[in-house]
């Protein structure tokens, strides 16, 4: 059941990434955030109720609420036009807790691929804090690309592979290593590329496209 929710986390991250890149309307993205946010609150609630006290199931399910509340918060904020400071600082909380869940997956659950995936999420939610909480608008394009990519790499693809039974067949250490290398290389390469593009857009002025405020 958790894999089903994770699949749609991939979808909402992809949509939110495109929104930050100016490709999706704010209100349109807000509606989808509400759908996935509700799903990611209902899913862990059901998992915990039916866990029969199993600590591993409860531990895994508890982390899902972090994302459910994020998407509900984002959806309401986008539709209501609210200031982003609140969701920004909540994202800092999520980024810190994600480090704890990464440790728990590595040491307690012995799930190294998802330990790395939690590190991905910690990095992404840190970017949300910087962008939305501290208003570092120059990070908009970079954060948009990271969000869209993580939607596939950390959620949609793993969820689909879990659902069809392929994820468990592969060597978990190899998956974790590939994820770690991919994240460092791709997100490291994106930084100078998006900074250069942002600088060109700024020099272009109004002809350079939508302003960050308009997004």
UniProtKB/TrEMBL annotation:
Keyword Transmembrane: yes
Cellular compartment(s): Cell membrane
GO cellular component: plasma membrane
InterPro entries referenced in this protein's UniProt entry, alphabetically: AmiSUreI_transpt, AmiSUreI_transpt_sf
Keywords: Cell membrane, Membrane, Transmembrane, Transmembrane helix, Transport
Highest taxon listed in the record's lineage: Bacteria
Membrane topology: Multi-pass membrane protein
Pfam families: AmiS_UreI
UniProt similarity note: Belongs to the AmiS/UreI family.
The protein's name in its UniProt record: Transporter
Originating species: Streptosporangium minutum
């Amino acid at each position: 059941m958790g894999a089903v929710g994770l699949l749609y986390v991939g979808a909402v991250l992809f949509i939110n990434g495109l929104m930050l890149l100016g490709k999706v309307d704010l209100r349109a993205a807000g509606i989808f955030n509400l759908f996935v946010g509700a799903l990611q609150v209902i899913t862990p609630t059901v998992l915990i109720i039916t866990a029969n006290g199993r600590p591993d199931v409860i531990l895994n399910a508890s982390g899902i609420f972090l994302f459910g509340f994020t998407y509900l918060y984002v959806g309401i904020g986008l539709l209501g036009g609210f200031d982003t400071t609140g969701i920004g600082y909540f994202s800092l909380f999520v980024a810190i807790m994600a480090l704890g869940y990464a440790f728990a997956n590595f040491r307690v659950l012995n799930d190294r691929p998802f330990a790395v995936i939690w590190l991905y999420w910690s990095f992404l939610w840190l970017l949300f804090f910087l962008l939305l909480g501290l208003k570092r608008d120059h990070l908009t394009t970079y954060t948009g690309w990271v969000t869209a990519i993580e939607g596939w790499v950390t959620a949609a693809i793993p969820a689909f592979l879990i659902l069809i039974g392929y994820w468990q067949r592969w060597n978990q250490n190899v998956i974790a290593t590939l994820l770690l290398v991919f994240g460092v290389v791709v997100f490291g390469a994106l930084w100078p590329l998006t900074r250069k593009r942002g600088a060109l857009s700024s020099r272009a002025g109004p002809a350079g496209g939508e302003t960050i405020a308009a997004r």
